[in-house]
Amino acid sequence: MPESPKRRSWFVSLLRDRWVQAALLLWIAGSLAVFPLSRGTLPFDWPGATKTAIAAQVISPVVTVAAFLLLMGLVYFLTRRREIPNLAARAPARAVALRELLWLWTYGAGVMAAGQLIGVRLFGAGLGLHLNGSLFGATRVQAPAEVWTWTIYNFVFFAVLPYIVFRARGYSREALNLKSANLGNDTLVVVVVLAIMCALDLTLGPLLKTGFTGHQILEGGAISFVVHLLGTGLPVMVFIYAIMMPRYMKLTESVAATTLLGALSYGVVHLLEYWTVYDSPPHSVLSVIFVLLTFVPPGLVKSYLTLRTGNAWVHLWAFHAISPHVTIDTRLIIRDFSIR
């Protein structure tokens, strides 16, 4: 049966979007640049991926994007009958929105840089938006004091202070994407997406294959939930998906552009991950490339969930706070807190 003109025109329109074309070209260019820059060896300390070929490291994010696009299609289906909130209407005038974004990114860069300095001074390693061991395996054991310092630092400077400042500027919770416009549909999206992601994490992930006892998993899972909710979940939600997303929509007037900018922003705030290496130009470029290859795909889902529901809480509960930071990262907390 031939493809319907409506479906074909939608797909063709997406491919013709200049933002999508630019993203595809940058993705291809960055992926191809890995090979001459690396000269056959990546500089990263990835205990969980030491035997993975470079080609596989480049191809893996493409597979992830394909899977996440299917997930985004499911989200579209689940939200197809609801009224889609207008995020642009929640933002101030274009000039004010641009000025606020510039200030936010300047502030965010300062917080990220200060986190590196403070972490190195106190613990010998910088404070980023992920704990050591997340995604690519642990390179060292972190003491509980370091974990709680990381948690409090990110929570205060990426979540609490930006929220207080923008509420003081007169923005309502709705204007900050923090109030549901359709609680029933939001709940449906959360339950369906979370169920899928938890099933995948627990089936394919390491948590249930490492021999932990039920007590270790329960206690470690509870601590992991609190630590990651405060240390990365709420900071990402407030800083990017509550505050930045309406301003991106106001400036671009494009769903595709806003989705991509939200995903790119999610990557940028992770530029100082524990495994990144900035000791030479080639290593620096490789670090940026792999941070974006790693974090842009999940950032696309977070952005799309926020755009379709107008509620930043949806992405937090469906695709961040529990999966993967409880279903996968509990193993790190069990180790760091010496839970027996």
Report on this model:
This protein is an all-alpha fold. It has one domain. The chain contains eleven helices and no strands. It has helices at residues 5-16, 18-38, 54-78, 94-123, 144-168, 183-204, 214-252, 255-268, 281-309, 312-319, 330-336. Helix 7 (214-252) crosses helix 11 (330-336). The longest helix is centred in the last third of the chain and has 39 residues, at 214-252. The mean pLDDT is 94.
Helicity, as a percent range: 55-70%
**Unreliable residue stretches:** none
Distance between the termini: 59 Å
Number of domains: 1
Rg value: 20 Å
Broad shape: globular
Order of helices and strands: HHHHHHHHHHH
Q: What summary fits the major beta sheet?
A: none
How do you describe this structure in short?
This protein is mostly helical and about 350 residues long.
